[in-house]
Amino acid sequence: MTTVDDRVAAAVLGAAATVPAVVADISRVRDRARRYHRRRRTGVVALVLVLAALAATVLALPRRGEPVAGPVWAQRLLLWSDRSTISSDGSGVGVVTMPGVNEVRPDRSVVRHTAPYDGLVSLLAAAVTPDGRLVVLAMPPAELGGPPPAVRLLVYGPDGALTGSRPVRMPVPLSRDVPLAASDTNAYVGYGAEVVAIDLATGALRPTPVPLDPQAPNRTVLSAAGGRLAHTVPGDPCLVRVRDERSEALLVEVRLGLAGCTAAGPIRLSPDGTRLAATASAGDRSRVELYELAGGQLVGSTLEVPAHSVFGLAWTSAGEVVAAVCALPAGATRIYAAEEVLRLPRIDT
Amino acid sequence: MAVSATQVPVDTTFEAFYGANVDRVHRALALTIGDPDLARDATDEAMARAYTRWATVGHLGNPAGWVYRVGLNWARSRWRKLRRERPMAEWRAVPVPPPDADAAAASAALTTLPTDQRAAVVCRILLDLSTAETAAVLGVPEGTVRSRLSRALAVLRAHLAEEQS
User: Fold this and answer.
1) Which chain B residues touch A32 with a CB distance below 8 Å?
2) CATH topology of domain B96-165
3) DSSP A219
4) Which of A191, A207, A349, B152 has the most CB atoms in a 10 Å sphere around its CB?
């Protein structure tokens, strides 16, 4: 230990004695402590604000390859409830949509519409009209021993307000996830052996020349927009026919280009009905393809994703297509809600 | 024969600590930083911080050392700021004439020491801290304290010897 000799210590103490004495005043310390508190509190608040701003900025950043900013979506985007995929090997792995009408917003949030069928037992199908209304087919509860209840057709405006609710008399009960598309005037429903048109204003039914596969009626895929109705063909699932909505005349046939295609869907007509976005699946992959209906030609780029992972399509105002892709992550060992794994890649034309 | 120990109540309040240590800490800081006015400000600031967290500081082994260190750090940052804002001639304190020759020599010698060595001397002599406590207060290893102290004492002894001769 370093020894301090007395003379040095005394000299240092003497030097300290030359320092003018401080007047002890604890109130001065208390005042200063209050100011110190305020400074710290202000600093903490400022830090929290800065961190919140940073967090908001980071959260607002687009994921790589998926810019959020871009053209306005020209169509509302619903997630197909029948896209839910759970492996059949007992591993308990898959992607499911939650009960209700699941709508994806441009900010990647998923809005679940459950109010439309409050009090109704079962949601059968949902679609959006080109003008942004939500059309829902739902089944009310059956009375014990009574006749099967009528299916209800509900129409909700873009603001969510109910604008129409009417029973639709169908002799054969509809099953869940029936094919459904909606134009501004009609809902097209796969029913029995064919697709029927339901007038949104009157509820009147009329048959259409669009047939259904009696063995797998729910495999038919529909889309309506721009005065046209697009549908797949029974027995040839990768062939899409486009008809004039009013005359029901066949306008064009599009054969999806993916080699070995075994299934189509979802499909989506552009708002003006001149182009078609279609999903084709073969083996373990699916491909979203864009077609110019005037010549039936493939246009723009394509998007390849794992099979059956495309849960919905929507066109933007710039003519791009946004795909709702819900693919299992690598090494998945559980069931995911669709919104957990949702990506929204764009396909350019 | 039974021996009963008389317990002397120890006042552990901040007020008691303040009353007993404010002058000592102020003098230590003034000697270390060489500016009594800045030292007074630093003492107030450090005491205010001790007051706001007395529940913790009051249980430290050496609260005065803690206050000294906080005051020294505060003064250093304040010093740097003042030096940027004002020319040196304006902020340098005018030394008060010392009362005796040794004190004058020590005072003069202290001003020639680097601040780190001055702090070591002040901690050991004025605040009466051990080497380990000084090391803890200054945030340096004990070996560093020993070497700083050794060099500083050598300079002080030399000044005192010169004064005597």
Assistant:
1) 44-45, 47-48
2) Arc Repressor Mutant, subunit A (1.10.10)
3) G
4) B152
CB within 8 Å of chain A, chain B residues 108-147: 110, 121-122, 124-126, 131, 146
Contact: A8, B39; criterion CB under 8 Å: no
Q: Which residues in chain A have Cβ-Cβ distances shorter than 8 Å to B153?
A: 2, 4-5, 8
| Tokens 């549908």 found at | A231
Q: Do B48 and A29 count as a contact with CB atoms less than 8 A apart?
A: yes
Q: At A57, is the secondary structure helix, strand, or coil?
A: helix
Tell me the per-residue pLDDT of B32-63, one tens digit each, with 9 for 90 and over: 887 788 888 899 999 999 999 899 898 888 89
Which residues lie closer than 8 Å to B48 by C-beta, 6 or more apart?
A29, A30, A32, A33, A35, A36
Phi, psi of A239 (to 5 degrees): -110, 125
The edge-to-edge listing of strands for the beta sheet with A263-269 is A263-269, A275-282, A285-292, A297-306
CA atoms within 13 A of residue A82's CA, in its CB half-sphere:
17
For residue B123, the 8-state DSSP code is I
Say if CB A275 and CB A293 are below 8 A apart: yes
d(Cα A211, Cα A188) in Å, to the nearest integer?
12
Label the pairing between strands A151-156 and A342-343.
Answer: unpaired
H-helix segments, chain A: 6-17, 26-60
* pLDDT at residue A157, as a whole number: 87
Residues 66-105 (B) with a CB less than 8 A from some CB of A = 95-100, 102-105
The domain ranges of chain B are 13-94, 96-165
- Owner of token pair 């604008």: A163
Size of interface A-B (CB pairs under 8 A): 114
In whole angstroms, give the CA distance from residue A145 to residue B109.
109
In three state form, how does the secondary structure of B82-99 look? Answer: HHHHCCHHHHCCCCCCCC
Q: Tokens for B12?
A: 């552990």
Q: Which tokens belong to A232?
A: 């797949």
Burial class (CB in 10 A: 0-12, 13-18, 19+), B75: buried
Query: How many CA atoms does the CB half-sphere of A130 hold within 13 Å?
Result: 18
Nearest to B52 by CA among A109, A115, A38: A38
Q: Which helix (H) or strand (E) holds A244?
A: strand A236-244
Q: Is the predicted ipTM greater than 0.85, yes or no?
A: no
pLDDT digits (tens, 9 = 90+) for A205-255: 888 999 888 777 778 899 999 999 999 998 888 999 999 999 999 999 999
Question: Which among B44, B105, B156 has CB closest to A32?
Answer: B44
Q: What's the CA gap between B47 and A28, in Å, rounded?
A: 10
* Candidate from A4, A22, A26 with C-beta closest to B153: A4
d(CA A72, CA A98): 26
